[in-house]
Write a structure and sequence with these properties.
Elements lengths: L2 E12 L2 E12 L2 E6 L6 H9 L6 E6 L2 E2 L5 H7 L1 E3 L12 H15 L10 H14 L15 H14 L4 E5 L10 H13 L4 E5 L3 H7 L2 E6 L2 E6 L1 H6 L1 H15 L2
Parallel strand pairs: 3-8, 3-9, 6-7, 7-8
Antiparallel strand pairs: 1-2, 1-4, 4-5, 9-10
Helix pairs in contact: 3-4, 3-5, 4-5
Bound molecules: adenosine-5'-triphosphate and magnesium ion.
Length: about 260
């Protein structure tokens, strides 16, 4: 299996603090990799380095074998790295449908696949409606984004991401702040993405039951360093995960 995304000795320093320390890791299409580790381990920082929000002090990021380390975040996004941000991807004053339609349109402009033939407004709307169906938001299509409840806004954000059709999906605590009944929709979406077997999915999640169920592989970060990388059952049973999650995180984040 060829790697769609790879980091080589990826490192970032903040002053004297090495937040991500020489992380080398290859991620494969059709596979969901969870990144776990205690608070402050460097998980979000690693995401920032991959998506381009942050420039590396050293090391490389490769997408489909090409070095993208020097590229801006928007450029990486056009190339197919898709990251759900906590609501910052949304246009708050536009409707749910318009938000998704704009993403579909942006994707069509990239012109890399069949959507490029879907030029007409009607077709764009049709595709946007389809995406909204998948996130169970079709009934809210005409609601202004900022008027949605928080959980629906998060779902809309995932819809926007899906409409952009990236090769790499990055989710950083996708269910954080969601109510118990909203969580399954997001998990179903991630399951559906996984089922396609052509997307590279990276997930940061503190809830170990979710990690256990969704992951094909788990990597563990500790003080910015990749300390464990392997098959879920073995990694979850490892002392570092048992200590970090059973000792500190689990009681707070599991319900
Ligand atoms: N822009 C920054 N400037 C300085 N230090 C930073 C910056 N961003 C992150 N850090 C530091 O880098 C370390 C890693 O932070 P990061 O947010 O990546 O952790 P995390 O694993 O995502 O934690 P959590 O599970 O709490 O989300 C922390 O010590 C943090 O304070
Ligand atoms: Mg984080």
């Amino acid at each position: 299996m060829s790697s769609s995304l790879e980091t080589r000795d990826l490192t970032v320093r903040f002053g004297g603090h090495v937040a991500v320390n020489a992380v080398s890791c290859a991620f494969h299409a059709g596979s969901l990799t969870s990144i776990v580790g205690p608070n402050g381990a460097g998980k979000t920082t690693l995401f920032n380095l991959i998506s381009g929000q942050l420039r590396a002090t050293a090391g490389e990021v490769l997408l489909h074998g090409e070095d993208i380390t020097q590229e801006s975040a928007p450029r990486r996004s056009l190339r197919g790295i898709g990251r759900a941000f906590q609501l910052t991807n949304l246009f708050p004053h536009l409707t749910v449908l318009e938000n998704v339609r704009l993403a579909v349109q942006a994707r069509a402009r990239v012109g890399l696949n069949m959507w490029s033939t879907w030029g007409s407004h009607r077709e764009l709307i049709g595709r946007a409606e389809e995406v909204l169906e998948t996130v169970a938001l079709a009934a809210r299509a005409s609601v202004i984004a900022s008027a949605l409840p928080h959980g629906d806004q998060r779902k809309l954000e995932v819809a926007v991401l899906m409409a952009l059709e990236p090769d790499v999906f990055m989710f950083d605590e996708p269910t954080a702040g969601m109510s118990i009944d909203e969580v399954p929709v997001i998990l179903d979406l991630i399951r559906a993405l996984k089922a396609r077997r052509d997307k590279t999915i990276l997930l940061v999640e503190h809830k170990m039951d979710i990690v256990r169920e969704l992951s094909d592989r788990i990597i563990v970060l500790h003080n910015g360093t990749l300390v464990t990388d392997g098959e879920p059952a073995a990694v979850i049973a490892s002392p570092i995960v048992q200590q970090a999650y059973l000792g500190v995180e689990m009681p707070a984040s599991e319900h």
